[in-house]
Design brief:
Pfam families: ECH_1. InterPro entries: ClpP/crotonase-like_dom_sf (IPR029045), Enoyl-CoA_hyd/isom_CS (IPR018376), Enoyl-CoA_hydra/iso (IPR001753), Enoyl-CoA_hydra_C (IPR014748). By secondary structure, the protein is an alpha/beta fold. The chain is 48% helix and 12% strand. A hairpin with a 7-residue loop joins strand 1 and strand 2. The chain starts with a helix and ends with a helix.
Length: 337
């Protein structure tokens, strides 16, 4: 980092001047109870305090959530907390078969409520977003409902969709979109907000808004170029082209493509396999790694390296404080799982 600063005069001074602002942003992304290390913030956070950020909030403001395979919300959105060897994996299943899983006011409200609960649940390790409807992931906004809205309602409704998709993008744990069917418009924007996307070869994906003489309004114009590059993203948005799973894999839109199975859930099965791979890893490391990557991608390399250094330093505090004879909840949450 020092060499980079020498090569680019003034870069280090600019970095130092904006460091407090960066730290504040990173701390906000980490969520309640988090702080970055004292080397960037002044006084150092004690390891026990850092560790407690992963336990229930002090004072018991957030009750611990039990794990069950039961449906946790109304039928349009099913939230399942998996059990046994899959404990820590949460599945958000969209279930509006009669409307091709399109975003209604009610579904957006339920998604917002579910995401709000998940982001503060320290036992959640990975979240899978899928469809409970065969052949459909999400068809975007519910245009039939939108037609019935007053003109003054349309703007706030689109803003709410955008806000919920942003909330999913900002979840502190890994997120996987399992695309086993049609993902158009806002449906693809929902998938783009996830860290990893997997799809069946028969799935169909596209930002098709220009066919309706509008543009993507749920983050598509920003996240698609970041996923596949600016030129190709422009081509796909300008043409409203729809890709199948193989084509989406070829352009880098998805990470894995699978032949669809008889049950119609090949992408979900692959997402579950990936989530199981994540489970044994340190939960603090997973969250901080996601933070470092996400924040680093939005800034120049010198600043990104400073973010990585700050995140690594806080992990090191936990490791340095580890005592093999201490089996307290704080230490276990910080180091093991």
């Amino acid at each position: 980092m020092a060499a980079a600063a020498v090569a680019a005069p003034g870069a280090l001074g600019t970095l130092q001047a904006g460091r407090a602002r960066l730290v504040a942003a990173c701390s906000a992304r980490l969520g309640p109870g988090w702080r970055l290390p004292g080397s960037l913030m002044g006084s150092r956070v004690a390891p026990a305090i850092w560790a407690r950020g992963w336990a229930s909030a002090a004072g018991g403001s957030a009750p611990r959530r039990g794990y069950s395979s039961e449906v946790k919300t109304e039928d349009e959105l099913r939230v399942r907390y998996l059990e046994e060897e899959n404990r820590g994996i949460v599945v958000l299943g969209i279930n509006r078969a009669y409307a091709k899983n399109s975003f209604s006011k009610n579904l957006i409200k339920m998604l917002s409520k579910a995401v709000d609960a998940l982001k503060s649940d320290k036992k959640v390790r990975t979240i899978i977003v899928r469809s409970e409807v065969p052949g459909i992931f999400c068809a975007g906004a519910d245009l039939k409902e939108r037609v019935k809205m007053n003109p003054s309602e349309v703007g706030p409704f689109v803003s709410k969709i955008r806000a919920v998709i942003n909330e999913i993008a900002n979840l502190p744990v890994p997120t996987i979109a399992a695309i086993d069917g049609l993902a158009l418009g806002g449906g693809l924007e929902l998938a783009l907000a996830c860290d990893i996307r997997v799809a069946a070869s028969s799935a169909k994906m596209g930002l098709v808004e220009t066919k309706l003489a509008i543009i993507p309004g749920g983050g598509g114009t920003q996240r698609l170029p970041r996923a596949i590059g600016m030129s190709l993203a422009k081509e796909l948005i300008f043409s409203a082209r729809v890709l199948d799973g193989q084509e989406a894999k070829a352009v880098g839109l998805i990470s894995h493509v699978l032949e669809q199975n008889q049950e119609g859930d090949a992408a979900y099965c692959k997402a579950l396999d990936l989530a199981r791979e994540f489970l044994p890893q340190g939960p603090v490391a997973m969250r901080v790694a996601k933070l470092a990557i996400n924040q680093g991608m939005e800034v120049d390399l010198v600043t990104g390296l400073a973010i990585e250094e700050a995140c690594y330093a806080q992990i090191h505090i936990c490791l340095s404080a580890w005592n093999p004879h201490d089996q307290s909840e704080e230490q276990v949450l910080c180091i093991v799982n």
